[in-house]
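Q: Here's a chain of 212 amino acids. Please give me its 3D structure as tokens.
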Amino acid sequence: MRGLWRSRSAGHPPAGPSPLSKAEVAAAEAELGVRFPAAYRRHLLTVSAGGTVCELRRTDDGWWWAGDNEYGRRDLLHLPFPHPDDYAAAEDELGLREPRMEDYADESAYDRAWKAWDDEYGELQDRKTAGAVIAQEHGCGFSTLLALTGPLAGTMWWDGRATCDRILPLSLEHGSGARPVTFDEWLDHDSWNLLPPGWGQQDLRPDRRQQT
């Protein structure tokens, strides 16, 4: 059984699973088909396999992360994490193609068309988080994402699709072209405090859709 390891990051949970060995990290990277961002790799080796972040551990199915990550798709992990701007047009186009009952001769034909469309929509939603894992869960469907791959590797993002249908950067300075914080920067902050104005804990409720 792993012992407890005291986190060096002030303001975060002081205990968690002990760090991984270099051999374990290398094995996880080889199996998952990714190279962890340097700061996250350092955290795994010198601070904890979890603690502040969801634990990376060896399961019966191989290396994977604890928590809601169990619903993540391994086949998408090696793909570059996409900037939200990259799929905005495709999402708009898909929305315009949602089947309408009045366009079909009968309910059975409509149901088949809508199921095919819904499958396509689900695939788009899955690909929005390709190359990323949930670093921290916040309840009500909200989570903090760590991008592992692509140009945005090592940056932190907010998955707010539960209420606002958006993934946006966690940033120290919001505005046009807000720079997402790095993993090291994020460790010293609370995700709620890195959201844009009006997106705080009291503003993002499951029964209140944000219009921004």
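Q: Can you summarize the key feature?
A: The two ends are 47 Å apart (CA to CA).
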